[in-house]
Write a structure and sequence with these properties.
4-stranded mixed beta sheet, alpha+beta, 4-stranded antiparallel beta sheet, about 160 residues, 8 strands, Immunoglobulin-like
Length: about 160
């Protein structure tokens, strides 16, 4: 074979792969731009805080805090659901109420410390129409045991071991 055929074949291969790579790169850039554009139309949930510490409270106290949030996105925000990690943690929220861009609202969280002595950390999981779809809020506290209830718990433990 003549050397010029090899040169022509090599040039052909290089030019084809270069165009294919360029085309793939352009398609990837277009996909990323489309994703970014779609995400820019979503609501964004911005909180004043993601965690609240009640400090030390007494067993039996019911405490409450508010998590203030703003929709910093470009479309209406909807909170579809809010669930506490246990029955002692109860959220109150604007359920299925559209929150316009720039609008501020709140989620109140009550914690009932009955029968919860010691260190407590609880969560509230929000289901939203944001990009992530879920947000988590945390509360924590140290619950000082009620002396009468603590004696009853000790007696019950002693009886269970005997």
């Amino acid at each position: 074979m003549k050397p010029w055929i090899f040169a022509l074949l090599g040039l052909f291969i290089i030019s084809c792969t270069g165009n294919a790579a360029k085309k793939v790169k352009q398609e990837n850039i277009a996909q990323v731009e489309a994703r970014q554009e779609a995400n820019s139309d979503l609501p964004v949930l911005s909180f004043d805080k993601n965690e609240h510490d009640f400090g030390t409270i007494n067993e039996g106290d019911v405490v409450e805090t508010a998590f203030i949030f703003t929709n910093t996105g470009t479309s209406d925000l909807t909170i579809l659901d809010a669930r506490g990690s246990c029955g002692c943690t109860v959220p109150e929220y604007p359920k299925n109420t559209p929150i316009a861009p720039g609008e501020t609202s709140e989620i109140k969280v009550k914690f009932d410390s009955a029968n919860k002595p010691g260190n407590q950390t609880k969560t509230v999981t929000l289901t939203t129409n944001t990009e992530r779809g879920r947000e988590i809020l945390r509360i924590k506290t140290v619950v000082t045991a009620d002396p009468v209830k603590e004696k009853q718990r000790q007696a019950a433990r002693n009886q269970a071991t005997n």
